[in-house]
Amino acid sequence: MDKPLIGIVMGSDSDVERLKGAFDVLKELEVPFEVTIASAHRTPKDVANYAKTANDRGIKVIIAAAGLSAALPGVLAAHTTLPVIGLPLEVGPLKGMDALLAMAQMPPGIPVATVGIGQAVNAALLAVQILSLQDSSCSKKTTQYREKASKKVSTARDTLTELPKAPPEAFLG
Ligand SMILES: Nc1c(C(=O)O)ncn1[C@@H]1O[C@H](COP(=O)(O)O)[C@@H](O)[C@H]1O
């Protein structure tokens, strides 16, 4: 297996299921990744060390996923110059709004590229797009993924048999 290029850090083992979409996309696109659990609140030294060693180990992008008061992505970002993608998870009474705001509203100087609540697939795709800056195969993989998604839409359109649907020429540029 190739060396991991994407590091995925979750705040807790209770988050694993919510990351499934990201794991599936990266497996489908055959982009090597590694997964770990570390918490800025519970294991702060591990978070700092992970971020500090990531670049030298060959990691190019970090995805940090957490629910509740999510300091994790910001703390990782504080300890590395690698891009950090924040994935807020729908956990607890505020259903991810707390995590979203904590990730998106970083103080100037330490950005976290935050995707929507629970948008694990987008976090993975964004990571692959960042990799494509250096690796054209990742760009091709992104294009192929989009073509597949686009076919799904046109197939769904064809199933609109009971409704007055727009004619095919409506989509000819
Ligand atoms: N937000 C954070 C951080 C952190 O930001 O460092 N560490 C754990 N957590 C989150 O706490 C939630 C509950 O965790 P537990 O289920 O372990 O109590 C999880 O969604 C985790 O990501």
From TrEMBL:
Record keyword Isomerase present: yes
Gene3D superfamilies recorded: 3.40.50.1970
Residues the entry annotates as binding substrate: 12, 15, 42
GO terms for MF: 5-(carboxyamino)imidazole ribonucleotide mutase activity
UniProt pathway: Purine metabolism; IMP biosynthesis via de novo pathway; 5-amino-1-(5-phospho-D-ribosyl)imidazole-4-carboxylate from 5-amino-1-(5-phospho-D-ribosyl)imidazole (N5-CAIR route): step 2/2
Superkingdom to which the source organism belongs: Bacteria
Catalytic activity reported: 5-carboxyamino-1-(5-phospho-D-ribosyl)imidazole + H(+) = 5-amino-1-(5-phospho-D-ribosyl)imidazole-4-carboxylate
EC number annotated for this UniProt entry: 5.4.99.18
Domain PurE: 4-153
UniProt entry tagged with the keyword Transcription: no
Gene Ontology terms: biological process: 'de novo' IMP biosynthetic process
Region feature (Disordered): 149-173
Keywords linked to the UniProt accession: Isomerase, Purine biosynthesis
A Pfam family per the record: AIRC
Its job: Catalyzes the conversion of N5-carboxyaminoimidazole ribonucleotide (N5-CAIR) to 4-carboxy-5-aminoimidazole ribonucleotide (CAIR).
Family the UniProt entry places it in: Belongs to the AIR carboxylase family. Class I subfamily.
NCBIfam families (UniProt xref): purE (TIGR01162)
Protein name: N5-carboxyaminoimidazole ribonucleotide mutase
Organism of provenance: Acetomicrobium thermoterrenum DSM 13490
Lineage of the species this protein comes from: Bacteria, Thermotogati, Synergistota, Synergistia, Synergistales
